[in-house]
Specification:
This protein is an alpha+beta fold. Helix content is 39%, strand content 18%. The chain folds into three domains: 54-116, Trypsin Inhibitor V, Chain A (2-Layer Sandwich); 122-196, Trypsin Inhibitor V, Chain A (2-Layer Sandwich); 205-270, no CATH class. Strand 8 and strand 9 form a beta hairpin. Helix 1 (11-19) packs across helix 2. The radius of gyration is 53 Å and the shape is elongated.
Length: 271
């Protein structure tokens, strides 16, 4: 006897895919995407330590070694961001931290520290590659003061010196000239020597005096030369030909002199 009974227990899935292949692919894609998103969430939570946090301890005004030890014991990492010099704090102590104290962060988070430097900050005033020349020479007073303010200098003084232009002559740091490419401390006592421009006026005055003296000498020399260049045979007769009568009492008149000497004034020009 022939058995016509057929087992259809596993045929419903294959028949659905055969009848609706597009819909079946969409369902499969959604299932795979959901599993992938869930796996990514688990990985992210594990990596970022989701659900776990701790409070940042305060380390400001502590020494560098104390701050490092305290943060490491709390499960945090440390990064030195910058060194700033402050006279009101001891060198090597923490000035500021970020994130601030009592903030909630993830375990292993980096805490950035700002440390008070052991030595004041040193800067280069003039980075022009001519180390034998004075720094900022030829710069205007206004520009020089702005540069010192930008670099953080506090003790700056301007001194006027005799010169031809209103420009910087040289810069002194603690009494010593500063040259290009030279580093100096921002806590140095700075003196800026600026030319006042009076030397040009003095030079003009001296030049005018020299011209005046030269003019006077030329006038004197011109007068003596004109006198000396007069021929002797014409100068003396002209002087003797027109003698002025003497006004002093008790002296002889020209006529008496003529009788005594025997010289006639009219004929003396030929003598």
């Amino acid at each position: 006897m022939k058995n016509n009974h057929t087992d259809h227990s596993y045929s419903w899935g294959s028949k659905f895919i055969d009848r609706h292949p597009v819909m079946a692919n969409i369902v499969i894609i959604f299932i795979i995407a959901g599993l992938g998103i869930y796996a990514a969430y688990l990985a992210t939570a594990l990596f970022t330590k989701h659900g776990r946090s701790l409070q940042v301890p305060g380390v400001e005004n502590l020494s560098y070694t104390q701050a490092i030890s305290k943060l490491h014991n709390a499960g945090l990492n440390v990064d030195i961001r910058d060194s700033i010099y402050r006279e009101d704090m001891k060198p090597g102590f923490v000035i500021e931290q970020f994130p601030k104290a009592n903030s909630w962060v993830k375990p292993g988070r980096k805490i950035f520290l700002y440390i008070n430097a052991v030595h004041p900050k040193e800067v280069i005033l003039d980075d022009d590659n001519h180390p034998n020349e004075y720094a900022l020479k030829g710069l205007s007073q206004r520009s020089a003061l702005a540069k010192f303010e930008e670099l953080g200098f506090k003790n700056v003084r301007v001194v006027k010196v005799l010169g031809t232009t209103d420009r910087v002559v040289k810069v002194l740091a603690n009494g010593k000239p500063v040259r290009k490419m030279q580093k100096i401390s921002v806590k140095s006592s700075i003196v800026i020597e600026v030319s006042d421009g009076r030397l040009m006026d003095i030079q003009d005055s001296l030049t005018n005096l020299e011209y005046l003296d030269a003019y006077r000498e030329s006038q004197i020399s011109d007068g003596s030369e004109s006198y000396e260049n007069i021929p002797a045979e014409t100068s003396e007769p002209e002087y003797m030909a027109n003698p002025e009568p003497e006004k002093n009492e008790g002296k002889s008149t020209p006529e008496k002199n003529t009788e005594e000497t025997g010289i006639n004034p009219d004929e003396s020009q030929y003598f």
